[in-house]
Amino acid sequence: MLVQGIAEHARAMLARVSWLVSRRGVLRAGLAVPVVAACQRERRRAEPPVPGAAHLDTALADEDRLLAAYDQALASPTAKTRSLQRLRDDHAEHRAALVAAGARVVPSPTPTGPPASTPRPQLAAMERAASAARLESCLAAPRSLAPLFGSLAASEAAHAVSLNA
Fold first, then answer.
1. Which pLDDT tens digit goes with each residue over 26-81?
2. CB contact at 8 A, 64 and 99
3. How far, in Å, CA of 29 to CA of 47, rounded?
4. Residue 109: CB partners within 8 Å, gap ≥ 6?
5. Are 54 and 102 in contact (CB under 8 A)?
6. Is the dihedral of CA 137, 142, 146, 149 positive or negative?
């Protein structure tokens, strides 16, 4: 019904200006309309950049590395699994919060071979490094991300202390 109304309107307009426009010109313009509309539709689909995206992506990569390290540590038969599992679960929550804030998920390469155990002192060092990096992100990223990065820095600093205990 709508298409018929548009077609009738177009015919009426063509009747008024038929002496100005050739039939071939109208056909060319009619073919150009879908192309222009498709280009504009593609332009609208692009997502706006997330403020602080680089900081979010770096933090997500760090969380992925920490998760992999905890998985390796938990695979060890001598690991104190309850305390390590709790810390690993915290990092899974950190990762989910970063993704919710707009971090881009990049597929990580799958490890080949058996996982090597990650000792607690190495985990503590990784936690301290991640805490320092999140503190830097807290200061450098947009103000809206400061609470997220601040809480991640505090959590990772607490993890480092608990690993050293």
1. 556 666 666 555 655 555 555 667 788 999 999 999 999 999 999 999 988 877 78
2. no
3. 30
4. none
5. no
6. negative
